[in-house]
Specification:
7 strands, alpha+beta
Length: about 70
Amino acid sequence: MRNVENNIIGDITSGAEFKRVNVPRTDFDLTLILSVDGAVVKKSSKADFWPITFTIAELPSSVRNFFITPVAI
């Protein structure tokens, strides 16, 4: 999605920086988005839970969140 009036780019793969860093690619290349998010396991515990996940940027934004893959904990 792109709002031309306000120059807003609405998806990852339509951004200028994404296109700049992606040199010529083949149909089999994928761009992975890595994410890390910390969560406290229990209030009285000193342990934290830090899942590392990735998703594929080339997936349509409508289905991208259904294909989040855990990499490590």
